[in-house]
């Protein structure tokens, strides 16, 4: 049986993005969950739970483009426990989520959704295309990028 979970928290690290090839990429970040509790009539922070979040393929690319450290997020996925023994013989355990969905937590702010579509295959362009933007604007932006790369070389 799979342990499907959803969790809210804040992005606690920069997103680490690793493209493997033109079709597969991975992204990882740490998420911090700190509940507020009432102690002796005063509100305060309880202990922070840190959870690693891993994403693959298109989700990894979207996470790379959308999240920054400190953003409030909702993560849905499979809960995993990683266990290992370090060089000193100390046993470690870390919770992680293999994410199937990641989004901003709108209870803490607003966001604007941008639909992306992939360019038709075959293509040498690995970045998603923003379907909400004017195609001429995208072409102008791509031409500007090519010019700046040519000037840099």
Number of strands: 10
> Major beta sheet, specifics?
5 strands, mixed, barrel
Strand content: over 45%
Radius of gyration: 20 Å
Question: What gap, in angstroms, lies between the N and C termini?
Answer: 54 Å
Listing every helix as H and every strand as E from the N terminus to the C terminus, the arrangement reads EEEEEEHEEEEH
| Class from helix and strand fractions | alpha+beta
Strand order of the largest sheet: 1-3-6-8-7
Give a verbal description of the structure.
The protein is built from two helices and ten strands, in the order E-E-E-E-E-E-H-E-E-E-E-H. With about 150 residues, the protein is an alpha+beta fold. The strands form three sheets. The protein has a five-stranded mixed β-barrel with strand order 1-3-6-8-7. Strands 4-5 form a two-stranded antiparallel ribbon.
């Amino acid at each position: 049986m799979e342990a499907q979970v959803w969790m809210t928290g804040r992005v606690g690290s920069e997103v680490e993005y690793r493209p493997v090839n033109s079709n597969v990429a991975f992204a990882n970040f740490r998420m911090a969950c700190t509940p507020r509790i009432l102690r002796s009539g005063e509100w305060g922070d309880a202990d922070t739970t840190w959870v690693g979040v891993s994403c693959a393929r298109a989700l990894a690319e979207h996470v790379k483009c959308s999240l920054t450290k400190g953003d409030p997020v909702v993560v849905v996925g499979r809960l995993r426990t990683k266990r290992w023994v370090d060089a000193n013989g100390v046993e470690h355990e870390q919770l992680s989520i293999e994410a199937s969905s990641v989004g901003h937590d709108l209870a803490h702010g607003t966001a604007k959704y941008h639909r992306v579509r992939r360019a038709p295959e075959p293509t040498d362009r690995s970045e998603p295309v923003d379907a909400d933007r004017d195609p001429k604007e995208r072409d102008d932006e791509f031409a500007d990028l090519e010019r700046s790369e040519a000037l840099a070389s």
